[in-house]
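Note to self: the last two entries modelled the partners one at a time, which told us nothing about the interface. This time every component goes in together.
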Amino acid sequence: MNKIEDSPLSILYVSHGGGPLPLLGDESHREMVANLRQVTAQIARPAAIIVISAHWEAGKATITAGANPSLIYDYYGFPKQSYEIQYPVSGEPALARKVLALLKDKGIDAELDDQRGFDHGLFVPLKIMYPEADIPCIQLSLVDSLNPVEHIKLGEALAGLGKENLGKVAVDEHFAMIPGALEEAIRRDLEQGLKPLCVVATLGTTGSTAIDPLKPIGEICEKYGIWLHVDAALAGTALILPEKRRMAEGIEKADTFVFNPHKWMFTNFDCSAYFVKDKEALIRTFEILPEYLKTREAERVNNYRDWGIPLGRRFRALKLWFVIRTYGVKGLQEKIRRHLQLAEYFVKKIEASADFELLAPVPLNTICFRYNTVGRSYSTKELNQLNADLLERVNDSGKAFLTHTKLNDIYTIRMVIGQTQVEKRHVDAAWDLIVAEAKRRR
Ligand SMILES: Cc1ncc(COP(=O)(O)O)c(C=O)c1O
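The predicted structure of the combined assembly is written out below.
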């Protein structure tokens, strides 16, 4: 996670005063220099740096876009050596063009400048933080330097840089990731000089509970040295059943795995269980150690504040512990099995009905279906409307609550059987209600 290519987009606020003085060994800036160096030691090394500098005064925001920008010594009245400082860093014109496009997209007036050099707002802090000058940089110089609205708009625009690096992999007819398509996408990225960082596979997608094939996906990730995260938000609970563990075949190749006991393991919101193979990778990424957080216990305990972003956190493990103690593993297994049986029971009702059809495989407890009477030829648009109306009537009754999604543009009703005390009579009642409401408007 800590290699150049793997650095996530992050924003660092650096306050720097005194023009060139911090670089000249000035006593009053010593603490500031030490702080900047400490920050560098604690963050992942970036692949490129965009410095957003607040004090350039052109008519609109400018982005330094030259391949080898010079330095502008825009400070006055300092000792002679202040004007001899060098920072021979390269520019990153492609990134400059990308940033310009993102700003324009958000209606922020800006232009590229091939001639402009880096001003001291860039080279002074960077020479302290990265003295080798080996990380390409661009400088975005703002007009309205301290206007918070401008700053927020800018942040929104730059957030697009993250999304642009997110790729979607094609899925098969069951909505599960196609490993061949994943490998193709990785190869395409590599050919373009991009370095894929992480693959997120899902056990039980939100829309249809599709199960991605972890084994081949894991092998591909291993081959290309890519972090594999497995999101089993709802479906992870089913892994407490030995007969369901097959769906996680290949899980040993995952670097991280998460599931939400608050979804299907009877634990009050919120509680997400997160498993990580190499905790050091998290610590290297998130650890901060200011003086007031240093304790004698650091070696003896897991400091979870260093495994993620928040420092303060609730003790969620405690309520999960009580759930496990209350039901016992056997009790939990019985409940989950019961839910799966009820889901199968509901599936059979749909299969036996001439008025309803399944729209996705049902590996667990989510049933994707719609109203569609055999022998009547509705258009997709009509069916979408009919089913949206049906869902609304069912929910308006106050007796059941169903959700929907769209699978290949088809309006899909979702029935989830996972409530702690659900019984067959509830499922029967829900089915009768759905059938009655479907009949009402035919
Ligand atoms: C597959 C999947 N991942 C993630 C989430 C969101 O999880 P969380 O509530 O922990 O952010 C959901 C649903 O809420 C989900 O279905």
